[in-house]
């Protein structure tokens, strides 16, 4: 799927692509490459689909990675999502990478008959980091926390809003 992310410094839209990875999963980002998750390992999970976001300018560089499970009963489950380290913080190269990937996962929920429901867990070693991330997901990506759990859900209305903001 074609998307547009923003070059942080210039604020120019950069043509990009979200692609399903079916081959060469060993070349996916890993902890050894400075990522938090080992995508090549986690992409082997049963019913998992792995997607990468790359730009047309530098298609060999992975800007973000997403693993979803579409076989869960009531929603698509976002198992892992991460942007490249050079897309984090105040000096990031590209903005909107995470938004595009999360909106794409929401879109997959509609496509797979899950009505736009997207679930995921926020698991951090430190409770304060969990709370900070949950707040970010709530404010930026329309997620709501289930009770006092680590599980968050993006409801259909929130999914539609993300799709309209990031994928159109």
Task: Describe the protein in words.
- By secondary structure, the protein is of the alpha+beta class.
- It is built from four helices and nine strands, in the order ββαββββαβαββα.
- It has a nine-stranded mixed beta sheet.
Give the topology string: H per helix, E per strand: EEHEEEEHEHEEH
What's the overall average pLDDT, rounded?
Answer: 96
Task: Give a short account of the largest sheet.
Answer: 9 strands, mixed
- The coarse overall form would be globular
- Proportion in helices: 25-40%
**Number of helical elements:** 4
Rg, Cα atoms, Å: 15 Å
Q: Classify the secondary structure makeup into a structural class.
A: alpha+beta
Question: Helices and strands in order, then pairings?
Answer:
Layout: E1 2-7, E2 13-21, H1 39-42, E3 48-55, E4 64-69, E5 76-83, E6 94-95, H2 97-111, E7 118-121, H3 127-141, E8 143-145, E9 151-154, H4 156-166
């Amino acid at each position: 799927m074609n998307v547009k992310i923003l070059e942080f410094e210039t604020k120019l839209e950069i043509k990009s692509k979200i692609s399903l990875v079916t081959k060469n999963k060993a070349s996916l980002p890993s902890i050894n490459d400075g990522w938090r998750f080992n995508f090549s390992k986690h992409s082997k999970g049963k019913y998992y689909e792995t997607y990468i976001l790359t730009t047309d300018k530098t298609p060999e560089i992975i800007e973000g990675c997403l693993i979803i499970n579409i076989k869960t009963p009531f929603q698509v489950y976002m198992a892992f999502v991460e942007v490249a380290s050079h897309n984090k913080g105040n000096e990031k190269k590209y903005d909107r990478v995470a938004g595009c990937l999360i909106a794409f996962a929401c879109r997959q929920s509609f496509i797979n008959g899950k009505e736009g429901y997207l679930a995921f867990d926020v698991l951090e070693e430190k409770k304060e980091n969990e709370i900070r991330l949950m707040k970010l997901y709530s404010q930026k990506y329309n997620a709501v926390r289930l009770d006092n759990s680590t599980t968050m859900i993006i409801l259909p209305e929130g999914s539609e809003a993300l799709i309209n903001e990031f994928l159109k």
